[in-house]
Amino acid sequence: MSTAPIHAANPEELREVRFDAAMESQIAELLTHYPIPRAALLPVLWLCQKRYGWIAPGVMEAVAARLGLSPAYVQGVVTFYTMFHTTPPARFVLQVCTTLSCAVCGAGELLAHLRKRLGIGPGERTPDGTFQIVGVQCLGACGSAPVVQVNDDYYENLDPAKLDALLDELAAAKE
Amino acid sequence: MPKLTIDGREVEVAQGTNLIEAARLAGIAIPYFCYHPYLSVVGQCRICLVEIEGQPRLAIACATPAADGMVVRSQTSSRVREAREAVMEFLLANHPLDCPVCDQAGECLLQDHSMDEQGGQFSTHMVETRRTFPGLERRLLGPHVVQNQNRCIHCSRCIRFTQEISETSQLTYVSRGNHAYIDTFDGRPFDDPFSACAADVCPVGALTLREFRFRKRAWKLRSTPSICPGCSIGCNLWIDHHERIVYRFTPRENPKINATWLCDYGRFLAESLNAHGPAPTFRDEDGSSSSPPLEETVRALALELKAARTLRVVASANLSNEELFLAREIFAGYLHGELVTPVWPGEPRRMKNGHGVWLASSDAHPNANGARRLGLDIVDESGLARFLYGAADLTVLLDPLAHPYLAGEEALQLLRVGHTLVFSQRQHAVCEFARWTMGVASLACNEGTFTSGADQVQRFQAAFAPPRGALPLWQWFTLLARELGLARLAVATPRDVFQLMVSQERSFAGLAWEELGGFDTDSYREHQHVG
Ligand code: SF4
Ligand code: FES
Ligand code: FES
């Protein structure tokens, strides 16, 4: 089973966000796990990222209103974590770990290979919107370095050949 | 009450006092950046490290409550000195060190502590180029606050101010660590009604005020204690001035009223203190005008006042207690005029005191309660209109800014009937046709007391002498009193007037002039701008 692509809502749709009944009930459920609404901020943001693909300013405002926080406060939290997308992401976000274990086990090689095959490096995306590369810190999977996280899934013990197979599979997965 | 020793000095403090405040009481200054006496303690900057006997690690003074028997070393510990030097080096690693062109210079905690903790000996291990924030070096965050992110030391005081005090939570860090910068949500304007306080609490030149920056070097300014003239709350402030020009208001600490805050509205009234009245003018029936010398003016005024068969006087809740008292004694008491004091609520203003309680304004004047205490006849807009519709052959306006109604067409029409004498601090439509216009020096040249909305009588001092031709209103009144032969009122200072009030007015009995300042007891004063 391969990783599902991200469907990023377009910015127009997220200009003003109103949570539908499904979102509302999930948020209400999340809130029951925490003593104060503010404590539910991260899980609610994850929920939103799953739903909309990224956290647009309109989403931050809706979350802020729902949890009784200021939009600036929510923005502070969203931008603190590199895992939250504040712009529409590509369908597959390749988070390449560049920390020590991965670095010595070939992260550099993976990045070079990605550059050769996709023509992009960390912080960039392919023009067709299929791939995006982010250089990240330790993913906590050093035992199976080098590691690349694609959307929510880990791909471990990679080498250029395995990476090629993975990219082929992802590109084919289309919608 | 814990008793502890700091750098060999013993001090007893209230339960819960942190080591920075305990040291302050012992006369020892422990440096701090992120700590602020009226904000939450976050322990971010680490400059306040001290050594505590019996504890192997240095502790941050801001987050350590004083305990009985504690032995604390600050300046007397070499470990502390080394640690602070290292913290300074760290904070300065990415700082632009642009003090010569930075408007915070002279009142910058980073500059001060750099001198104190590094002995002015700057050294760095940094070989990399400095981190900068292109595009954020000169950004207008809102109507008043200018940001230079390169200078920010990430103390989060400004953010906490908007979260904890003004409660707008408009500011945040965007991004993290080395890359974090101060921003508003989605680039919206930082239009918090207390926005300028963010620049006050910013310990460095990262946030400065559009209205003040580059107008005067901080070390040239002299500060005179005064009271905000903007509303009835009575916030305590400093008039910062140089060579008889007012440059700004800064908050003066008063835990009961304004802690260390001012609202933007009140703060930016500072500029209005630079007007000291139109030139004294006499306008004759035929429209010709002249500016007679002071003695002649006072003499002529006295004659006009005495000659008037029906005299009516519009006082103002912007006047000091002393001025209102003199006005009542002279115009109502001696001259048997009819005297009213217009009061209007104005825009609602609010202020959070040092105990976290919001105070609300009741009037748009600093001294409506003074007028009430003196038993003056208070009128609202319709009362004022009725008063002006009544016939009188002489009307005296003690302050045309007493009520916005006085600038309206209707009032101006009514005032054109009969003669009008006007005392004015600023140019006003009435001055264009008044028979006499007397220039009144601004609050910056005045001395006296206001009675706040919560009924505290608070004293303000004069920053400098008025320019030629203008006099503070109390002085016009005492000169008139002398001319009218009222020796009792022809006193020399506002303090003398106050003594008269204390002995004569039940509502002022028992008050002592010396005790009404608040400024003599202020513990934060050496550190004038509390960061
Ligand atoms: S802008 Fe000033 S107050 Fe705000 S975090 Fe930076 S240094 Fe602190
Ligand atoms: S260093 Fe890459 S997973 Fe830990
Ligand atoms: S003042 Fe104590 S850590 Fe900043």
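^ FE2/S2 (inorganic) cluster complex. Chain A has two domains: 11-80, 92-172. Residues A 97, 99-102, 138-142, 145, 147 surround FE2/S2 (inorganic) cluster (ligand 2) (CB under 6 Å).
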